[in-house]
Amino acid sequence: MSLGNSVFQDASFNATNESDPRTSTLWAMTVPARTLGALNLEIRESLIARAVQLPVQQFIHTQGVSSAFLLVASVAALIWANSPWSASYYHIWHIKLTLSGLQLPIHEWINDAMMALFFFLVGMEIKQEIVNGELSDLRRASLPICGGLGGMVVPALIFSAINRGRPGAHGWGVPMATDIAFSLGVLALVKGIPAELKVFLLSLAIADDIGAITVIAVFYTETLYLNYLFIAALLLAVILLCRKIGFGRQILYVALGFGFWLAILRSGVHATIAGVILGFLVPVKSQVSLDDFDELSRQTMDEFRKARAAGDTSLAARQLGAMEYLIANTESPADRVTRKLHDWIAYLILPLFALSNAGVTFSSNIWQSLMHSSVAWGVLLGLFVGKPIGIFGVCWLAVKLKIAQLPKSVRWSHIGSVSMLAGIGFTVSLFISALAFDDGAQLDAAKTAVLVASLLAGVSGYMLLKRVAGISKQA
């Protein structure tokens, strides 16, 4: 995933075509077209926009930059956890903060609240893909869905086989996830890759996200409190009613969404599931189509010019209000929210998550215990071996059985390379590790294995993709 993901994140978005479902992806953005359009006008009058805002936007939406921030945060966590100040690393995340009467350690604020926003965007991305994207067409979606299924089942089976009858057996969900951010980021580093392969990887990661979310909701929920689930259901009904009657005040939805998240948190279901559900509720279609905008804006501008000519400032202002409404509603609520939140998720929330979760203190004793840890080997082999075998094997079987077909410009060598790349688990694998293991030694073993497997999968996938791209170029 992704965050994830993907993700994770800047590989293939075409800023001039936000409506194209094959490119309008949460984790693969250049500067959003609307943001860029506004800046192009603003820089004519504003030195700040010209000297600061535009360069910053161009930088943070450069391919791979958000993945680099995530990587830097992970390395910083490892250095901090193994420095003379390692005690402060573990202490700071357990400091309790109270907000709106809710007291949680900083670590839980990050994992339960901030990551709920990440999963909120993931929920919108999944809905986008189902409604408008690759997953909307069963013929195109069948290959990545089959690959995603294989990439979840085989790693879980490998982990379960290694840990059968052992205390860490319940961590089988850890190696199931693919990190959208890093996988797309590595893919973006290789030139000459078919666009269909990027779409395949994104769709695979989205299918993987759906599986990971289901696993978190069903298998990593220990105790349910039905009274809070009832409150959550009631708040959800109010949100749906407000949408049905067309109530558009964002502040109300924010308040109801916060209440829904809090009720889910208290219910025993992991709070990030609230983010996914709320993401699914956000409309992915605009209220005003581009054709309607073209026609209505012409009429509105004609009325505006007539009002100006007649000196009727009140009528002219009403036409400007109508134009403002038309412009705002040509963008779907999901696109608007994604455009506003994406950078905060990519450059604040996910690096904070990595900083607070990736830290593992190493010593000679720990390395010896890791070598004999069934949890570590289960996660490592699940991600690095199980992922590519599961994805490639099930895709191959699906094509042979004529359940799916390869895209025209994609070869089996491409699928094999991307299958290896999908072994980058990172964000969601670390997330599930924290849910699965209460024992500190098991948690450290799982985290270390996730980091090592993700590094091996990333480097191996990159080398395979470079080789395949080089052969394609020579051919």
Task: Give structural notes.
This protein is mainly alpha-helical and 475 residues long. The chain folds into two domains: 350 residues, Na+/H+ antiporter like domain (Na+/H+ antiporter like fold), CATH 1.20.1530; 44 residues. The chain is 70% helix and 2% strand. It is built from 19 helices and two strands. It has a two-stranded antiparallel ribbon with strand order 1-2. The longest helix has 35 residues.
Describe the structure in brief.
The chain is mainly α. It has helices at residues 33-42, 47-60, 65-81, 86-92, 106-131, 138-162, 180-188, 195-219, 226-244, 250-267, 272-281, 290-310, 313-328, 333-357, 364-371, 374-400, 412-421, 426-436, 440-474, and strands at residues 96-99, 102-105.
List the helices and strands and how they pair.
Layout: H1 33-42, H2 47-60, H3 65-81, H4 86-92, E1 96-99, E2 102-105, H5 106-131, H6 138-162, H7 180-188, H8 195-219, H9 226-244, H10 250-267, H11 272-281, H12 290-310, H13 313-328, H14 333-357, H15 364-371, H16 374-400, H17 412-421, H18 426-436, H19 440-474
Antiparallel strand pairs: 1-2
Helix pairs in contact: 1-2, 3-14, 5-8, 5-11, 5-14, 6-8, 6-16, 7-8, 7-19, 9-10, 10-11, 12-13, 14-18, 16-17, 16-19, 17-19, 18-19
Features:
globular, disordered N terminus, two-stranded antiparallel sheet, 19 helices, mainly alpha, Na+/H+ antiporter like fold, 475 residues
